[in-house]
């Protein structure tokens, strides 16, 4: 059963008028069919008691009775799970009805396309919209996980995005309540393979971190327009999840860091809710608000009002020339293994050359001076990047990427930041994710990577908060990616290449 066939919503023009008046439980009049598939039919219906329209999922099971009992219990779990959640991004389940041997689940009718529909029709979505969708789905997942529920099938087809900005996560029909062991599905693949986390491919039980991985693949799809790990067969798809790393080509900065942080292979090393939320807020140009103790969303929308204010497009600033266009490179390299809590506490697989991030600026570990890409100083704490040298001559260090962390401007004051200093952890993650990805891209020849080491350099909090002026220009809120020979030897000519 495809998702397009069974989703409990849809624009009115897609409704097929039902033949004859049919009433369920003496209350719900079935108006038309929204979709159908192997597990049932979804109807648009009218609740004649309250007067509102609803979506009704009429369960239809395979002929085998053993399958029917498992599926019936699974779908009833949807009611129990959905009924326990209270979040604006979760589709509300109103009722469950058993009549004449059939089971009906009555739920909120949402008139909206899915995220899959939007990307199919429009292509990759703008970064701010992707970040906003991600933040709201993250809120729904946090509420579910706090209630002991794992969704198990987070994907674009299960996320609805309304024109007014509302986002809804649906289909908790295969959700798993961690404290309810009665239902077992031994030998069954529950969920969509292309969005399945590595630990689930290994046969481990679904966990909250598994949903976060699926959110990462979903946001990747929204940002790139393709499914990161989908291959021609299920076996090839599962193999790709376990062995391959995705390449981001359209996004950078906080959104890229959030996506890559969610797609860390080891579940214990994935970003936490707060870390992801902070990055998604930064990608929208807003400051994340504290999460309330209940685990629900921190910003409750008024009817028809957006949750957040998106900053206008950043004004063009007098940046130092960049030989590397990160708009093109973004994070097209592989971030495999894991980034740990703002520092490289353990080098991720494929990035054993990474060294801990350093700081520059006021009270920083590195001093920045003249512009340039190559320097004859070692890659370590205490260096002074004051006198650059020609990259065609012997040198010890190369800058292979540099970028402003947040180019967000206030509409009333060109020098004022909407986003306050987001914390060392967030700043480090943004820089490390992009430096790691760029190091593993064609910017650094693959044949030479094994002999190289690299590290990110980011601003201190004091440097971030310093107002830009003629002496300290825009990179007071930027980061650098530096590389050198692992053995400390001279580099005879420039290693890195420009990406056009």
TrEMBL record:
For this UniProt entry, which segments traverse the membrane? 322-342
Annotated PROSITE patterns: PROTEIN_KINASE_ATP, PROTEIN_KINASE_DOM, PROTEIN_KINASE_ST
Q: Which residues bind ATP?
A: 57
User: What's the Enzyme Commission number for this chain?
Assistant: 2.7.11.1
Q: Where is this region: Disordered?
A: 287-309
Annotated keywords: ATP-binding, Kinase, Membrane, Nucleotide-binding, Serine/threonine-protein kinase, Transferase, Transmembrane, Transmembrane helix
**For the Protein kinase domain, which residue ranges apply?**
28-280
UniProt enzyme class: transferase
Protein name, as recorded:
non-specific serine/threonine protein kinase
